[in-house]
Request: fold
Amino acid sequence: MNNTLVSIVIPTYNRANVIQRAIKSVLRQKHNNIEIIVVDDGSDDNTKEKIRELDVENLRYVEQPNRGANAARNRGINEANGEIISFLDSDDELLPEYVSRTLTVLRESDDRCGGVFTAYKRIDRGTVIETVSAPDSEITLDELRVANVIGGLSCTTFRASVLNDVGGFDEKLVSSQDYDLYLRVLRTYTMRGISEPLIKVHLDDDRISENIDRKIRGHEQIIEKHQARLSQKRIAHQHYVRGLLYGDKQELKLARSQFKAALFSNPKKPLYSLHYILCFFGDNLYSRAMNVKRRIRRVLKT
Reply:
């Protein structure tokens, strides 16, 4: 795979302030045979001008009306000429070894391996706050139905034939599109993890994934679509996360119902009981308890 053409698909929407950073990280790759496909999903800022400033020969800029990130990624898949396709959010960065390392792992894997994923570093205002690990091994649907062990789309690379086989991204989903894609890929294929952190995921931009209502609806859609494939532990986790999101909105009655559903699916998890009980003590105490929890987590991560 030394001469394999790799297509890097970068969906973007109003990311003029960071799009050059993402593109430059692709230009620094040690693998040379790369095409960059930036799909602009209806930006109304100066994204186009920022891309033109770079004057990159192997970059294709595609514009479309605003239809959402899933539609933009599907457009990128359709535009791609590469045998291999990687996804990069426009506010993230690839480290220089990313493409060459993923190609090596794909070359050493059998045809059942549909793609690879890597560990990554989470960056907040220029500081690494966490390194998210990845198993240095093959994973199957059995692992994924319990937890999303793969992570976000920026750390993933797939064989183009696999993405075409599963039909790309579900454009009806408002969030959790990564987990949905992985579940469908692993029904037929395997994926392989790379334990080296080869991506920088930036948290300081106004990311779509931080929209609480979209995240809540996305978790609902995952259960509606994949409930028969998910383990009870994963279903419990989906309810738990929705409870946390409702708690962030100070809608404690809805949060309590989600924590109760999580307990029903996995009654052995003490954390679910704790959050369920906290919901009875009002917004002030709940918020204070969540702030303490976040501070403890930050300390443990660092």
Remarks:
- The mean pLDDT is 93.
- DSSP finds twelve helices and ten strands in the chain.
- The radius of gyration is 20 Å.
- Strands lie at 6-12, 34-41, 59-64, 84-87, 93-94, 113-124, 127-132, 138-139, 156-159, 190-202.
